[in-house]
Every structure is written in structure tokens, then in C-alpha cells.
Amino acid sequence: MEENSSKEIIKMTGIEKVYKMGSNTFKALSNVNLTIAKGEYVAIVGPSGAGKSTLMNLIGCLDKPSSGEYILDGVDTKCNDNKLAEIRNKKIGFIFQSYNLLPKLNIYENVELPLLYLGYPNGKTKEKVKQAVEKVGLTSHLKHKPSELSGGQMQRVAIARALVTEPQMILADEPTGALDSKTGKEVLRMLTELNNEGNTIVMITHDMEIAAHAKRIITVRDGMITSDKLNDSEVIA
């Protein structure tokens, strides 16, 4: 894979996504042009049905556009499904609202999983997992199962799992949606700290109060980007 020597992590040009429903079609995204630089902290906001989830799936290489070009960290994502999965696993760390932890695996095993997908030998993952878990303050919980953790702790595990491969971008989908207000603020504080360390963060949310923690806010409505501006009133977590 060609590596990116520029500062762009995301470059989308003329992106459209059309879904077929029987004899009808629905255009979820229309002529989306988006560039995000390395090290940015961006929130993508919009009401339900605006197209932000569709855009997130395309950014995360979980789906393909109907037309247009998407360059992720210098790599063209117009490729077969196996290659797309390789790009996704290598370059993106995911944080989901529902955590997506495997209940039968302990914390160590959940965080280790992305490394195994990338082909790391089992014996060479230990140090990376320990470092990622230490960063989120859960070193003493390595043998715990997800059912033994609070919601905030599970989301920290999800953050550790996202970090363990040292991805080019962290994609967070409603990362505080299942958490109480206090715990949500702790997770947002952690994302801010990760960004301050140089990590690129792209967060999807419907909540402007959550989006206010980002340094740039992109608004999506009716499948189009209607606003893209720096956040002058950024919340300092």
C-alpha cells in the first residue's frame, strides 16, 4: 500500500450514496466533498436521517460509495472487499456507542483482537495490549469480562481496543450515547487528551453539546454538508 506523506487523512470528492428499494431509489448522500487533516478533532453532526451515519460508514470503510472518490491516508479505497477490510483494520480504530465487546472474552482478549486480525503473532501482542489498557486506566481489570464492568469502563476498553493498532484515525460513533452525564464527560475528556497527543479523532453525534468538545464541526442535512466551521467555543474538557 502506498503510504501518505501529506497531511490529509481523509479526502472525499463528489461522494454519493444511493440505496435501491425495490423499483425506487433513495439518495442518502449527495456530492459530499470533505477533507480532514492529520491531528484534527472533528465532530460530524446532524439530525436523525440526515445522512451522518451513512457518511460514517463510508469514512470507516464499512460501506462503499455509489460514486465519487475516497482517499484514506493516501490509499484509494476503490477496491475489493478483502482489500477494503485490510485498509480498515490497519488505518482506523473504532469506538461504538454499544461498545461491541465480545462477552466471552476478557478485557485483555478483547483489546488484543484487532492485532490478531492484522496477523500479529499471539506472543507479540502482550506489550501493545498492556500499553493500550494502561492508557485508559484499566490495568487491574485485564482478566475481567465485559459483564463485570460499568458502562464507562466498557467504553474505556473500546478506546483501548481502538488505540492498540496505532491507527491513523479514531472513528467514534456516539461514544457517550449509552453513558450517564458524568461518565460521558470522562470519555470526552479522554478523547480530547488523545487528540492533544496527536491522534486524529472523527466523532459522529446528534448532540451539539457533545460536538462542542471538537475543534471543528461539520453539519450534515438531507445528505449534504451544509456547514463546516472551526469551533470557536470549543469545550475544554
UniProtKB/TrEMBL annotation:
Keywords: ATP-binding, Nucleotide-binding, Transport. One of its GO terms (cellular component) is membrane protein complex. InterPro entries: AAA+_ATPase, ABC_transporter-like_ATP-bd, ABC_transporter-like_CS, MacB-like_ATP-bd, P-loop_NTPase. PROSITE patterns: ABC_TRANSPORTER_1 (PS00211), ABC_TRANSPORTER_2 (PS50893). Residues 10-236 form the ABC transporter domain. The keyword Transmembrane helix does not apply. GO terms for molecular function: ATP binding; ATP hydrolysis activity; transmembrane transporter activity. The keyword Protease does not apply. PANTHER family: CELL DIVISION ATP-BINDING PROTEIN FTSE (PTHR42798:SF6), LIPOPROTEIN-RELEASING SYSTEM ATP-BINDING PROTEIN LOLD (PTHR42798). Belongs to the ABC transporter superfamily. This is Macrolide ABC transporter ATP-binding protein. It comes from Clostridium manihotivorum. The lineage of its organism: Bacteria, Bacillati, Bacillota, Clostridia, Eubacteriales.
